[in-house]
Every structure is written in structure tokens, then in C-alpha cells.
Design brief:
It is built from 3 helices and 27 strands. With 339 residues, the chain is mainly beta. The strands form 7 sheets. Strands 1-18-17-16-15 form a 5-stranded mixed β-sheet, with no helix packed on it. It has a 5-stranded mixed β-sheet with strand order 2-24-23-22-21, with no helix packed on it. The chain has a 4-stranded antiparallel β-sheet with strand order 3-27-26-25, with no helix packed on it. A hairpin with an 8-residue loop joins strand 26 and strand 27.
Amino acid sequence: MHTRIILCLDIILILSIMSCTDNEKNKERCFSDFPTHISLDGRAIEFPDSEQYNVGSVEIAGDGYMFYTYMTDHYLLMTDSTFSNPKPLAYKGEGPDEFTGVTGVFGQVIDSEGSLSVYDPKKICLYSFNPKNNYKLKEEISFGKDFTRYVPLSVIKNIEGKYIAIRGDYQYGMVSFDPKSKKVQKWPLGYNFKDINMPANEVISFRSMAYNEKNNACAEIYGCFPTVILHGTDGEIIGSYTYTGYSKDEKNNEKTKECYLDVDLTTNYVWLLYGDPDIDENSHVFVLDYAGNPIADLEIESAMRIAIDAKRHLIIGVTPRSDEADAMVYEIPKILGNL
């Protein structure tokens, strides 16, 4: 009898070690194999005079798209839904209507008028453009020192009017700011980092986030780190999902292989741009559900950033290294259904 009990305990211990799912509502999970793998054919997009600059990032902005551009006198380029009628925004400079920089999530619709967000990380100030008023610039909020001491890298506004930010003070995690109470809240990390006092530079040096309004959920990723962390309304952990196919041992010129380069959220799915353009021939868009189950692996041309247009069922990919296109557009397979 005792032998049987010990054997059962041993089996339970082995299963718990092998499993990457914790006992707290399955919040921590691992994934590797996808039930569906599809290579997508893309359509190239070129903007007028684009030979003079490079496109570095893209976001869905209202009914159109907003692109970050390098080597121009402005940081952003707004287009309609057909990638036409490009309009430069966020001009560079030190003046009251100029930007010293633009980072993170931009183009988020933040009010009932359809105003689009733009964050200046050097001024630590969130602005907005109003498309209905010829993109007139407005200062949305200038944050107090209790918030700015975290040196926010990217700021989004949730449906409750709170502002959520990635920490830029070389520490793990995110913070939120409630403009009504002026309260700043540090969010749970969602991962047991062993080097919490001295974070690894290859992990902390690159951060990205995404927000889905319908679920009031936020996702964050780190550089050279195979885990995506999902937060709920008040920062509580929805899930922490790790891709076991990533290996830090694979290097390029002594640099650790990149893992996730971008993240996006739709109502039903988490979208992760995976791959290192310096090592991998193509990029992959991993699609998970909110429970961390792998749904599809979509292979696209090498990309540094993506945006998921759920309304038109499109993936828009960009890379500043491309000499052939400013953006690539891919149709999302119908098997994914309602995004």
C-alpha cells in the first residue's frame, strides 16, 4: 500500500515538472506546435517619394493606418484604408506643436471624436490628432512625477480612462495612472524573473505592448524572451505563455537571437511576430487564443513590426531594411474565422 502511494506521488511529481501549466487557473502555459501552418503571399505597398525614407512601424489608426518613418522631417505618416492619400504628422522639433520623439503605441482612438494618440517619450506627454479637425494637435495629459519617474516608454488609454505604460527605467513590469485619483499602480510582473534587481539588458532593452478595448486586456513582450504576458483590467495576470521552440543559444555576430518583435490583440486572438531578421529567412505570426492555446503559425516575409486589421482581415508588416516595399499586406486565412 505504501509503495503504491509513493509511486502515485512520484508520478504526480514527474507530471508537475513536465507540465508548463501551473495550478492557478492555468495562467502559465507553454506552447510549441501549431495545428495549422500556412505560408502567406503578400502584396507590396509603396508610398510616393518613399525612396527618401524608411518605414519602421505601423498601427491601425481609426479607419486608416499610421506609419512611423525614418529620415524625414516628421515621425508619422497617416494613410486611408487603401494606403492612399498619405499625410505627414508629428513634425520634428522643440516647438509647442512639434515632437522630440514618438515611441510605442500610436494611433489609438482615445475619445468619442475619433482622436488618435501620439506619445512623446522625451516630453513624457501624450498628444492627440483630430482627423475631423484637419488633424489638429492637442495635449491630452502631462503626467505628474509619480508616473514620470518610471520613464514610460509607451502609453495607452484604457476604456476606464486610466493610462497604462511600459516601464522605461530598466526594470521589469508595467504601471498605470488614474487621472481622477492621481494614483499610480505597479502591475504584477506575471513571470518569476530571477534577476529582478539587475534585469538582463538583452531582455529589458526592447519592450512592446498591445491593448484590446473589448476585452480590456493588455499584452506585453520583452526582447530575447519567449513569454507573452497578458493583463486584465487592473493589471491582474490573465496568462503567461511561453514558446518553447525559442533558443537563446542561437546567436548572430555574438548577439542573442531575437524572439518576439511585436504583439497585437484582437477580440479572440493574441498575435505574436516571431523571428530574427538577421538569422531567419522569414518571419512567423503566431496566433494564440486568450487561454494560450496555439491556433495557427502564419509565415510571412521578414518583418520588424506588424498590425492586425481585424475589420478587413489583414496583416500589415513593415521593416525599415526593405528596399522593395514600404509595407506588405497579407490576407488572414478564413479558417481563423471571427478575429
